[in-house]
Amino acid sequence: MKIETTCVQGAKDKNNSTGAIAIPIYQSATFAHPAVGESTGYDYSRTQNPTREALEQLIAILENATDALAFSTGMAALAALMELFSSGDHIIATDDLYGGSIRFFDKFSAKKGITFDYVDTSDVEVIKSKITSNTKAIFIETPTNPMMRITDIAAVAELTKNTDILLVVDNTFLTPYLQQPLNMGADIVLHSGTKYLGGHNDTLAGFLAVKDTKIAEELRFVHKNFGACLSPFDCFLIIRGIKTLAIRMDKAQANAAALANWLEKQEKVSKVYYPKIGAMVSFSVDSEKTARQILENVKIMAFAESLGGVETLITYPMLQTHAEVPIEDRLARGINEKLLRMSVGIENVDDLIEDLERAMR
Q1: Interaxial angle between packed helices 245-264 and 232-243, expressed in degrees from 0 to 180 and rounded to the nearest 10
Q2: Residues 150 and 299 in one domain
Q3: What is the chain's alpha carbon radius of gyration, rounded to the nearest angstrom?
């Protein structure tokens, strides 16, 4: 099946005897055993639940993964991922990551004795120069958040091929509809499913999609024991969201391209960051005053954190997504008082342009 069809038809309930088109919500914490030593395949919902199983299998198909695991949030997925690493391990990470990822690495993983080098992963030679005998993973986000830099996944995969270094890609911004990192040589894909996969700003979720069976088994063990699994109802909502992923991404991407083109022509806009793919656009304006004026005067767009929903959101990274990144690091990456980030939705693009134009005046 083509990916558009998979989004709509890919989630299957293997227990369905009713002909229900929608995946049922199996709102049960526990399951009865047919007899001693026998199981239906489900024992306790923390271990597995039929609704979550259908969603995980859908994510695995979309990402061409051996297995996929659904978590209560993207940060829960990241926390589980980091259990693969131990004291003394070294990780090379994109320097322009989502601020929450940097916070988790620096505040929690570092306490376990894991060390990090944050580099511009769009430069493969820089990555290569940082690899040591203790390097266990390269963690990239592409496009980056919020500066929209692109890393060549396949080129980085050439560095990790035939080594024990894992290549992990945060694919939240583009989703498997626009980018499939495992097909390019990555080992693990991370998603905040709260964003485009859910698509409606109403559900928290996280995912890990894994290529290697052994690593998948390790993560299943972590998943079961951490307990941060996605609830049946939230699984239902994410499945429903994925059904429209393709058409939402197409519309939002077209809107983003049009907005980026319009912003390029505005006197008060000094730089536009749009990688010509996806629906995220960042831009710098001429002053902090202009930035705050836009945030306080948009009417259709919402001044709010997060991204990936049908509604257009505009964010102030220095005070929101990257507020806890040390100021010197933040400024070095261009995340200053003049930078704004938009998650472009599926509204009429003329309305969005008029909203920004009015807010700038």
Answers
A1: 60
A2: no
A3: 21
Q: Is 271 a catalytic residue?
A: no
Does the active-site annotation cover 120? no
Helices 232-243 + 50-63 axis angle, to 10: 40
DSSP tag of 349 = H
Task: Write down the pLDDT at residue 133.
Answer: 97
Do 128 and 256 fall into the same domain?
A: no
Beta pairing class for 339-343 and 313-315: antiparallel
Ranges of the chain with pLDDT below 70 = none
Count how many residues are written for the chain.
Answer: 361
130 catalytic, yes or no?
A: no
In whole angstroms, what is the distance from residue 314 CA to residue 217 CA?
Answer: 39
pTM: 0.96
CA distance 153 to 166: 12
User: Which residue out of 52, 195, 248, 333 is catalytically annotated?
Assistant: 195
Is 26 labeled as catalytic in the residue annotation? no
Q: Are residues 195 and 206 in the same domain?
A: yes
